[in-house]
Amino acid sequence: MRISEKTKDIIEWIICILIAFILALLIRYYIGTPTIVKQSSMYPTLKQNQRLILNRWVRTTKKMPERGDIITFESPSSDSYIKSSEFNSNDVIAKYSNEPTSWFSNFIYHVLEIGKESYIKRVIGLPGDHVQIYDGKVYINGEELLEPYLQEDVTTTMGNYAFSDLVVPENCVFAMGDNRDYSTDCRAFGCIPLEKIEGKVWIRFWPLNLFGKVD
Q: In the sheet that 165-167 helps form, which strands lie side by side, from edge to edge?
């Protein structure tokens, strides 16, 4: 049976659309993607509704971020949130107990990121670092961490958070928001495995008057 020219055109358009869709997914997952700041935990560095471009190459190459980098990572499951009375120094890695199991649900969750929640925080501790939080300050390996990105009146308190004195495990990071009193972060759920880091904040493109690299 001979295929009409119109049918051929339709098939070609469908193929082009599929190729474009696959390329867009590959770029978004492996190279970079836009995102919107939805919370105030990184204020004043990042404000709600600002638009960012994330560098996903960090995830693709499994490269450990540097101290001070602003990263995004998959939010831990609710059973990672523990009280200070439940703290165990031998169990300081955030838990991810609700991961999808089938290939299709994995694709929907990790690639299309439907139903997935992510956090934006700043890397404070790297593998092997002894992180301590007391007297409103952060100490790394016994030395006070200088944090010029914080507002002058901001102190790092613990409240009922559990993770205030720990050694960051291998292939993990300890991250916190710059807006310490309004940030749910590693103080609450522990260290983030490298495999759960989704990207590094690279460029802010909205609002236009703040366009540029984010530090």
A: 143-144, 137-140, 130-134, 165-167
Domain co-membership, 79 together with 20: no
Q: What is the reported pTM? A: 0.90
Distance of CA 198 to CAs 56, 63, 149, Å?
6, 11, 22
Burial class (CB in 10 A: 0-12, 13-18, 19+), 42: buried
- Shared domain for 9 and 37, answered yes or no, is no
72: CATH:
2.10.109.10
| Domain of 25, in residue numbers | 1-30
Domain count along the chain: 2
Cβ contact 92:163 at 8 Å: yes
Other Cβ atoms less than 10 A from the Cβ of 75: the count is 17
pLDDT in tens, 34-47: 999 999 999 999 99
Amino acid at 140: I
Q: How far apart are CA 64 and CA 62, in angstroms?
A: 6
Residue 182: which of 214, 157, 207 has the closest Cα?
157
Determine contact, residues 108/184, Cβ cutoff 8 Å.
no
86-99 confidence digits (pLDDT tens): 888 889 999 998 88
Task: Please indicate, yes or no, whether residues 109 and 4 belong to a single structural domain of this protein.
Answer: no
Cβ–Cβ contacts within 10 Å for residue 104, how many? 9
Q: For the CA atoms of 135, 140, 146, 150, what is the dihedral angle to 10 degrees?
A: -70
Residue 107, φ and ψ in degrees, nearest 5:
-65, -45
- The average pLDDT across 48-74 equals 94
